[in-house]
Design goal:
The chain is mostly helical. It has a domain of 154 residues. The protein is 62% helix and 3% strand. The chain has 10 helices and 2 strands. Helix 4 packs across helix 5.
Amino acid sequence: MEGEQVMNASPSSPTTATALQLLRTAERLFAEHGLAGVSLRQIATEAGSGNNSAVHYHFGSKERLVEAIFAYRLPQLLQRRELLEVRLHPGDLRARLEAHLLPVLELAESRDGSYLSFLEQLERSQASRSLLTPLEAGQSQAEFVADVQALLPDVEEPVRTMRIHQVQMLSLHAAAERERAVADDLDVIPFGLFVSTLIDACVGYLTATVSEETKRFLARPLGATPPQAVRLL
């Protein structure tokens, strides 16, 4: 994302039950109310801590707490992604999309926290733009974008990059919505069908012919910077 910094190392995962409870409570509250809508005192209270300074003691600040959430969630996601990527056949756009997005979509099914809704809130927040992006996640994102760009030689810029960004946003919102529905025990379509239809839609969107109407817009001076990559997707 434009303006983001990349950090070389993430904080280690929580080492005590109290720290883990605070982290998971913070993830849920941030997912529900956004970063600006939650105080460190509120997180401590919701986590059942009698010490209002517990979050500050374990994490130091709200920004460091967010980094700790990344450090807790990302290793498993990135490891799963790497396992899928090594099986890829060169030139297969659908498989490349699935390898990158499936680990994220699987989190929606896990009933393990609110990480996807947390990410969705970060994407909506101007305040989150200054937060650090873990190096490993940034590398995974950059490799994905470069690979997909190479697989879409017939789609001109900036449409190609815009579409990649929009596909990632669509996937994040779809996954976060499913995460909430699963957590609330609502009826959802079978997971395999959910993933397959979403990937189909992404492939179709990325490869669609650029219309004459869009080409006319491209002929005009662009009034805004092309969209940046979705954070950590």
